[in-house]
Structure formats: structure tokens, C-alpha cells
Design a protein that fits this description.
single chain; alpha/beta; Oxidized Rhodanese, domain 1; four-stranded parallel β-sheet; elongated
């Protein structure tokens, strides 16, 4: 099978691999920025459910489940960076979009809450 035919046949898998690679790379970038963001007073928001949060979370984080985020925006200051995380980075990606749409200028998606460190 030549490269052209393989690409035509397997492009969805390639696209999926690229998407996961981008999520991983992006989370690594945010993890590297965390010390600076924390020093600047960043709010660390874990958007997993209350039950997930109770089973384990990073110190210094606030739990605002994604489905409650829109009604609890007043709890997150707009004057400092906001870093969101969840289990895999998908819900926190949605949270980032919601926060940006609501006027938060500096929002970062850390991916997994484990990237917040201890």
C-alpha cells in the first residue's frame, strides 16, 4: 500500500492521534507555566463533579463542576489568570471556552487535575 492510499484510508485515525497529541502538548505547556501563574494569583478550578473531586484533588483548587460553572462565575475573579482542569482535559476545554466567552481574558487548560501538582 502506498502512502497516498494509506493516508486516504486512515486519515481519521491520524487526525485523532494529532488531536490527542495536541491536548498532551498543550497541557505540558500549561504545567510549565503553573509556578508563574500561581505567583500571579491564579485561580485553580477543578471542573469535575463533586464526587470526583472528593475522591482526590490538588491542594489549592476550587471545585466548580462544569454544569454549575455558568451560574457560579462570580466566584472566579477576572483580575487574575484562571487555570481549569478535569479528568482528561475535555471538560476543562469546555470550561475555558465558557470563561473566555464571559470576559475572562487569561484562561488556561491544564488538562488533568493531576497536572496541578501537589
Amino acid at each position: 500500500m502506498d502512502f497516498s492510499n494509506a493516508l486516504k484510508q486512515y486519515w481519521p485515525f491520524l487526525l485523532l492521534a494529532l488531536w490527542f497529541g495536541y491536548k498532551w502538548w498543550s497541557a505540558r505547556q500549561v504545567a510549565g507555566l503553573l509556578p508563574e501563574l500561581k505567583q500571579r494569583g491564579a485561580t485553580l478550578v477543578d471542573v469535575r463533579s463533586a464526587g470526583e473531586y472528593a475522591s482526590g484533588h490538588a491542594p489549592g483548587t476550587v471545585n466548580i463542576p462544569l454544569q454549575e460553572l455558568g451560574s457560579r462565575l462570580a466566584e472566579i475573579p477576572k483580575s487574575a489568570p484562571v487555570v481549569v482542569a478535569c479528568a482528561s482535559g475535555s471538560r476543562s476545554g469546555m470550561a475555558k471556552m465558557l470563561l473566555k466567552k464571559n470576559g475572562y481574558a487569561e484562561v488556561y487548560n491544564a488538562g488533568s487535575w493531576r497536572n496541578f501538582g501537589g
